[in-house]
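Inverse folding, one chain.
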C-alpha cells in the first residue's frame, strides 16, 4: 500500500512538472515572437509623401522636409551631395555657413533643412540620412531660379490723351508662392479700387487684375489718360526682379507717328539718293546738249 501511494504521488509530481515546463515553453515562445515583431516594426523608415523636388527663387528661404518614423535611438543628418559635406547631424549644425539650419520641433518626426537667402549655386541634391546599418538615405532636389518680371510691349510707349493705357506684366519662372505684384509710378505705389460684382458704382479709372494660370499675370488699366499720367511705370513682384516701361501721354499726333516718325518727312538717306539722281539727270542733260551743239 505505501509503495502504491508513493508511486501515485511521484506520478502526480511528474505530471505537474511536465505541465509547468509546457506552459513555460509556450510563454517563452510567445515572448520571443512578440519581441521579434516589435524589433521589425520599430525599425526607422522614411515618409515618402513629402515634396522632394523643391523650387525657390534667389533670396527666398527654402525648406526641405524630411520625415522619419520610429527613429528610436538613431540620428538624422543632412548631407550636400555635390561635395558630401555634412550640414547637420541631429539638431547640431556642422557647417560654418549660417544660412543652413535644421528645424525639428520637440518630439517631432520632421527634420526640416532650412536654407536662408539661397543662391543659384545652392541648387542640387541634398540627402536626409539615418545612421542605421546599412545607412538609410532619401534624396531631395533643390532648384534655385532667378525670377524676373516682364512687361509686354516696347520700353517706351506713346498714347493719346483721353485714351486708355493697358500694361500686362508676366512672371513665368518660379514657384506659385511668389506672392503678388505691385505697380509703381516712379517711386509711388499705384492705388486702385476693386469694385465688387454687386456694388453699384462708377467704373474706376484705375483697375488692376492679378491671376495665376501657367504664370503670374498682372494687368494694369488706366482710363481717360491725361498728360499727368506720363512717367515710368514699374511692375514689382514680391520675390522677383522688377520690370518697367516709360509712358508718354501726348496731344494731337497719332502715337504711331511719335514712335516711327512722320511718313511724309524724308529721311537723310532718301534725301541723299534724290540729290544724286537729280545731279545725274542734270549732268546727262548737259552732256546731251553739248553733243548736240557739236553736231
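Residues assigned per position:
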Amino acid at each position: 500500500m505505501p509503495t502504491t501511494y508513493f508511486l501515485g504521488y511521484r506520478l502526480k509530481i511528474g505530471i505537474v512538472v511536465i505541465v509547468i515546463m509546457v506552459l513555460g515553453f509556450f510563454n517563452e515562445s510567445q515572448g520571443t515572437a512578440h519581441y521579434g515583431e516589435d524589433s521589425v516594426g520599430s525599425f526607422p523608415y522614411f515618409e515618402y509623401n513629402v515634396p522632394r523636388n523643391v523650387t525657390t527663387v534667389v533670396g527666398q528661404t527654402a525648406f526641405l522636409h524630411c520625415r522619419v518614423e520610429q527613429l528610436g535611438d538613431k540620428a538624422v543628418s543632412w548631407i550636400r551631395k555635390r561635395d558630401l559635406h555634412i550640414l547637420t547631424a541631429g539638431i547640431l549644425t556642422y557647417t560654418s555657413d549660417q544660412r543652413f539650419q535644421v528645424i525639428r520641433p520637440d518630439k517631432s518626426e520632421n527634420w526640416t533643412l532650412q536654407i536662408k537667402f539661397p543662391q543659384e549655386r545652392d541648387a542640387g541634391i541634398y540627402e536626409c540620412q539615418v545612421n542605421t546599418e546599412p545607412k538609410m538615405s532619401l534624396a531631395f532636389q533643390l532648384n534655385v531660379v532667378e525670377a524676373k518680371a516682364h512687361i509686354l510691349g516696347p520700353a517706351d510707349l506713346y498714347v493719346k490723351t483721353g485714351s486708355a493705357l493697358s500694361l500686362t506684366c508676366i512672371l513665368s519662372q518660379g514657384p506659385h508662392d511668389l506672392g503678388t505684384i505691385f505697380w509703381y509710378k516712379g517711386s509711388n505705389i499705384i492705388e486702385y479700387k476693386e469694385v465688387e460684382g454687386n456694388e453699384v458704382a462708377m467704373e474706376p479709372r484705375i483697375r488692376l487684375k492679378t491671376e495665376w494660370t501657367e504664370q503670374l499675370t498682372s494687368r494694369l488699366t488706366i482710363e481717360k489718360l491725361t498728360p499727368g499720367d506720363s512717367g515710368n511705370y514699374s511692375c514689382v513682384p514680391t520675390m522677383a526682379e522688377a520690370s518697367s516701361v516709360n509712358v508718354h501721354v501726348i496731344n494731337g499726333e497719332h502715337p504711331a507717328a511719335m514712335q516711327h516718325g512722320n511718313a511724309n518727312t524724308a529721311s537723310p538717306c532718301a534725301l541723299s539718293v534724290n540729290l544724286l539722281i537729280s545731279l545725274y539727270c542734270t549732268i546727262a542733260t548737259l552732256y546731251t546738249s553739248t553733243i548736240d551743239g557739236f553736231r
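Helices lie at 2-41, 255-260, 268-294. Residues 43-145 form a domain with the Immunoglobulin-like fold (CATH 2.60.40.10).
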